[in-house]
Amino acid sequence: MNPQVIVTDVQRPKLIPPKGASKVLLHSCCAPCSGEVMEAMLAAGIDYTIYFYNPNIHPKKEYEIRKDENKAFAEKFNIPFIDADYDMDNWFARAKGMEFEPERGIRCTMCFDMRFERTALYAHENGFPVITSSLGISRWKNMQQINDCGKRAAEKYPGLTYWDYNWRKGGGSQRMIEISKREQFYQQEYCGCAYSLRDSNAWRREHGRESIKIGTKYYGTEDKA
Ligand code: SF4
């Protein structure tokens, strides 16, 4: 970690990982969601590694944009970044039969389970006593659903704890947006999977809006299209 790095200058709640653990594996879904989580852990002096495992993201172009941006932001802070598999075939296989489930439903439970299962396995194999995730910081997500999945995954390994810290509190949600604007992060317009893209576009059509154009919208800027 680079001690010279400047993070957002605010008073934050005191952040101590469960059982006073000295190492944390942070599952990250994207730079906008993890920006505040990363800065909060940096400010608290927590030694952490980012684990990017998101085979749900579709198409590949969107996946690469989200991953590369998250990686670049981690490099800024000298935070280790684990680029895990993009095993989307496995994701689609697990989503079979759930294609028309609504967001926050059983397909999303499967999706969170899958991502946490791999995160927990990596933590177990690489000596991380605690896992957590940026997934719950978005107000579009059901935090309880995410926490249940995280706990379920961690419980499989003795000594591994899922940290269910509420990253939204203490101004976290607001800082998430501020950091995204400051960094001009890519502004994704759907949750991530092919089905959320389909449903977001259907909603847009109904409301007379254009379909999503991947790779064109950035926080704090005009469209770069
Ligand atoms: S809507 Fe989001 S959380 Fe739900 S299955 Fe799709 S990518 Fe996963």
UniProtKB/TrEMBL annotation:
Q: Which GO terms describe its biological process?
A: tRNA queuosine(34) biosynthetic process
- Supply one GO molecular-function term: epoxyqueuosine reductase activity
Q: Which Pfam families match?
A: QueH
- Which reaction is the catalytic activity of this chain? epoxyqueuosine(34) in tRNA + AH2 = queuosine(34) in tRNA + A + H2O
**UniProt-annotated binding residues for [4Fe-4S] cluster:** 29-30, 108, 111
* Disulfide bond residue pairs: 191-193
**Is-annotated flag, keyword Ribosomal protein?**
no
The record's similarity note reads: Belongs to the QueH family.
Stated name of the protein? Epoxyqueuosine reductase QueH
Source species: Snodgrassella alvi
Taxonomic lineage is: Bacteria, Pseudomonadati, Pseudomonadota, Betaproteobacteria, Neisseriales
Protein's gene: queH
